[in-house]
Amino acid sequence: MAADSNNSGQGCFDFISDEEKRKCFINAWGSPEKADCSTISDRNALDACRYWVATRKPDPEGCKSIADSGLLKQCLLYIAGETPSISVCGEYSDYREKNTCLNDAAIKSQRVGTCEFIASDTNLLTGCIAKVAFDTNSETACLRIPRNEIITIANCISAIALANSDTNRCEKIAPDVEYYKCFSGIAIKHNSQEICSLAKRENMRLLPYKGAYYCYKDYAEEKDDAALCEKVPVSELRDQCKREILQGTVCVSGDNKCDDSICTYGNDTDCTYCRTKEDCKGYKGMENARCDVEESTCRSS
């Protein structure tokens, strides 16, 4: 509810109509230092007066005196937005409303600690921390995301690294894929595959090759340019890079063609060639299609 810059609030007491009085208080902006709402007999106008007094001070305790539940929530939400605090949000009895209030308060105040009071909603909690971390340009804040949310932590750091074109921040990312994609994202942003060479990690957690090699490959695939695969030093990755780019061009479902030297039903539904049961999922509408390994053909079970 927006305040009226021409309405100080004190003049609202002079209205004869209770409805006009109510509207006046709701839109008032001035200081209520000398206001005495107890002189108002109409309940709706009284609630509006209390809303004005509580929101102008601001005073979350004052909101509690409002009888109308909708206006009470609006009062608390207004104060939470203007003067974010955990205590204001604590006035909500419904945990979802409380969580929403805490999320808004954290983002408004840019205090990641406020996010941590969000309960029973992991997505909102992690999203809140990631938002505050990004807005405050702090990858350290990303580490306050629950430890088991390792990919979310990585994506949080990566977003900040990309926004700042800062490859040093990418080095703080633990998971292999998110690590090299952080570098390739910055490389793509600046249209420079050479940025991949800045990836310092030589021993990845699960992947066998250096982080830079996967960055070169990912850059080429995102650019859809097989010539860029030549930058990949390892022949296995280089060939895989070229094959995946070629598959994207050749393996097209619905063109009544199948190059079975590189395509399978998994990436081109015009093919019957398969290697695993997964390649036959949904083959010709069959619910239980299987892969006949000997004939490399999808068949009905």
Chain-wise SSE layout:
Elements: H1 18-26, H2 43-56, H3 60-63, H4 69-82, H5 86-89, H6 95-109, H7 112-115, H8 122-135, H9 139-142, H10 150-164, H11 167-170, H12 176-189, H13 211-223, H14 235-250, E1 289-292, E2 297-300
Antiparallel strand pairs: 1-2
Helix pairs in contact: 1-2, 2-4, 4-6, 6-8, 8-10, 10-12, 12-13, 13-14
Structure described in brief:
48% of the residues lie in helices and 3% in strands.
Protein model, in words:
- The protein is mostly helical and 301 residues long.
- It has a domain of 47 residues.
- Helices cover 48% and strands 3% of the residues.
- It contains 14 helices and two strands, in the order ααααααααααααααββ.
- A two-stranded antiparallel sheet has the order 1-2.
- β1 and β2 form a beta hairpin.
- α1 packs parallel to α2.
- The longest helix has 16 residues.
- The radius of gyration is 30 Å and the shape is elongated.
- The termini are far apart.
- The N terminus is likely disordered.
Keywords:
disordered N terminus, elongated, mainly alpha, 48% helix, 2 strands, 301 residues, two-stranded antiparallel ribbon
The biggest sheet amounts to: 2 strands, antiparallel
**Mean pLDDT figure:** 89
- List SSEs in N-to-C order: HHHHHHHHHHHHHHEE
Distance from N terminus to C terminus (CA atoms, Å) equals: 63 Å
Work out the helix count. Answer: 14
Low-confidence stretches: 1-5
Helix content: 40-55%
How are the strands of the biggest sheet laid out side by side? 1-2
Rounded radius of gyration (Å):
30 Å
Shape: elongated
**Strand composition percent:** under 5%
Strand runs, count: 2
